[in-house]
Amino acid sequence: MPEGPPGGSAPSNRAVFVDRDGTLNPDLHYLKDPTLLDLNRGVGDALRLARNHGFLIVCVTNQSGIDRGFYTAEDVERIHRRLNELLAAHRARVDAFYYCPHAPERHCACRKPGTGLFEQARREWQIDLATSAVVGDRAMDIEAGRKLGLLTVMVRPRGHELEADTELAEHHLSPDIQADSFPAAMYRLLARG
Ligand SMILES: [Mg+2]
Ligand SMILES: [Zn+2]
User: Fold this and answer.
1) Is residue 20 part of a domain?
2) Strands 96-100 and 14-18
3) Residue 42 DSSP code
4) C-alpha to C-alpha distance for 32 and 66, rounded to whole angstroms
5) Cα(69) to centroid of ligand 2, in Å?
6) What CATH number does residue 120 fall under?
7) What's the number of domains the chain is made of?
8) Is residue 118 a part of any domain in this protein?
9) Is there a contact between 59 and 24 (Cβ–Cβ < 8 Å)?
10) In whole angstroms, what is the distance from residue 173 CA to residue 130 CA?
11) Is residue 185 part of a domain?
């Protein structure tokens, strides 16, 4: 769970909402062991740059493996601590993690493309959605961002362009920015000012 907003924070912060699996780190499917965690290339430097531009980094992730019994909430939080350890080597960090523990059949409000976790982060960190963005590798990330009026950024990793495009077409979604890697996506986002 997040530590809460920094003391004396400005009335509105801008944030980059980042997906976790497939975006910050390779998607290993129901990852439980933090020692297997690795950052995608260039993620640390790109997050440091975004924070230097004044963006909060808020990770929103679906972790239905908790509901399915593949791992526990404690396992997920251990992975998030490990992720920030890896990022610290690049003088970067994720400011807050929010995860949905539910399986899709629960029809909860927090599983992406639901917006519950984004709304919670908005309240807890006084985030101005109109100047914020979402970066993800799946249609559900873009769909959640659209509902909230965020700038939407899709990472289509090389070799997976067709899957990404098919998913977007099925959901009638067209991201504002597309790139073939997380750093390329972030640089394009930051170039917008
Ligand atoms: Mg993903
Ligand atoms: Zn949920």
Assistant:
1) yes
2) unpaired
3) T
4) 10
5) 15
6) 3.40.50.1000
7) 1
8) yes
9) yes
10) 19
11) yes
The answer as to whether 127 is a domain residue is yes
How many angstroms does the Cα of residue 144 sit away from the middle of ligand 1?
Answer: 13
Q: Where are the alpha helices (DSSP H) in 110-179?
A: 116-125, 139-148, 161-170
Q: What range defines the domain where residue 117 resides?
A: 14-191
Q: What is the pLDDT of residue 1?
A: 43
- Cross-strand partners of 96: 58
Say which amino acid occupies 97: F
pLDDT for 11: 58
Using alpha carbons, list the distances in angstroms from residue 123 to 4, 61, 74, 118, 127.
10, 18, 24, 9, 7
Specify which residues 62 forms β-bridges with.
100
Q: Is the dihedral of CA 189, 5, 58, 104 positive or negative?
A: negative
Give the tens place of pLDDT for each residue, 2-32. Answer: 455 555 545 589 999 999 999 999 988 888 8
Ligand 2 centroid to residue 193 C-alpha, Å = 33
> What stretch of H or E contains 190?
helix 182-191
Q: pLDDT grade, residue 163 (50/70/90)?
A: confident
**For ligand 2, a single-atom ion, which residues have Cβ within 5 Å?**
100, 102, 108, 110-111
In this predicted model, what pLDDT tens digit does every residue of 98-143 receive, in sequence order? 999 999 999 999 999 999 999 999 999 999 999 999 999 999 999 9
Rg over CA atoms, the chain: 15
21 is known as an active-site residue: yes
